[in-house]
Amino acid sequence: MRKKQKKLNKLKIRRCLIIGFVVIIFLLILICSNIIRKNKEYKNLSILLDDEFIKTKNDVVLEDDNIYFSKDDIQSIFDETIYYNEVEKELITTYNTHIALLKVDETYGLINDENIELKGNLKEISGKIYLPLTDLGVVYDLDIRYSKTTNRIIMETTTKEKKEAVAVKRTSIKKKNSLFSSKIEKLIIGDKVTIIEDCGRYKKVKSASGNIGYIKSKTLSDETIVREKVETQNKELNVYKNYSNISGIYDNIQVDSSKLNVVIPIFFYIDKNSKVLDRTTSSTATYAVYKNWIDTNNLQILPGLNDNENVSESLLSYSQRSQIINSLKELVLKYNFVGINIDFDSIDDINSFYRFILELAPRFKASGLKVAITLNNNLDRNRIEKIVDYIVEE
Hints:
By secondary structure, the chain is an alpha+beta fold. It has three domains: 33-158, 2-Layer Sandwich (Copper Amine Oxidase, Chain A, domain 1), CATH 3.30.457.10; 161-227, SH3 Domains (SH3 type barrels); 237-392, Glycosidases (TIM Barrel), CATH 3.20.20. It is 27% helix and 32% strand. The protein is built from seven helices and 29 strands. The strands form seven sheets. The chain has a six-stranded mixed sheet with strand order 24-23-26-27-28-29. Strands 5-6-7-8-9 form a five-stranded antiparallel sheet, with helices on one face. A hairpin with a 2-residue loop joins strand 17 and strand 18. Helix 5 packs across helix 6 (350-366). It is elongated, with a radius of gyration of 31 Å. The chain starts with a helix and ends with a strand.
């Protein structure tokens, strides 16, 4: 009887050992497969823009501490109006309040009219034009970094609000906001995370290596705002066209203080040498009376720029356009005008005109100046609305 009992006990122990061994093997396989899966995920380069993963049409190139995006991808993600001159081998890109001119294989570029030394350069790779994105972070309002740990490019828009918190104890970022969710990344005390969303007991966060997941709220410090949102809201434009003639007779008027109340006299012209002609004070006494009436009635001057010459002759090249834009901006700032209204009677070269507007807008907006256009039959309203602050109907 005792012998039988001993045999049964041995069989039970053997079964337990076998089961334990199988469980250990299973766990090891699970752990190994999870490691392989994670390594597989990190093997391929990923791109995180703010809190969303994005795909590119062409390969992204990592070279010499710079990240290169193809022109096609820059166009689809940041600047739909990007322009490349095949003959001159130069590229012009604009975004928000910035403009950049790069030339193939040159290590200097013009960014907001300042000659800047670049870490990379505009180059041709496999028949496609590539831009050094790391150098252009300032142009596209981006903070850019690369994480070797996750093989991930992490880009954040610097005009958006950013909140951070610090881990106050050892913790983990999880895939889901639940107790049994798988862990994505371990954190130690002092590790910073970007707060994406408050979910009560959990917060949705982004780690320094670009992992996005959930972490228990109690394991984090109070969040702090490390970057404020940049507000760009325009008042509604209210134009007093009947008072836009400098030599007219004026009555005192009541204006709506919630709107941008302006007059739009034509003060500036373009001549054949791509220079700006200033007619503001051609009749000093008359202008002084007009300006005094403007100030008394709480109006702003949004002076007009008119074309004496054909666009194809005065605005054809980047250098011509830049000369006019910078001269015009200096004059507008000198007279303390609110901005500029582009009012062309005829446009014989629509593409050069659009380039002029595209290159003018960021320079003026960077100086806090408004940009308006008097709409005529040559212009596509939908296209213009994306560039300027205001459209003035003829």
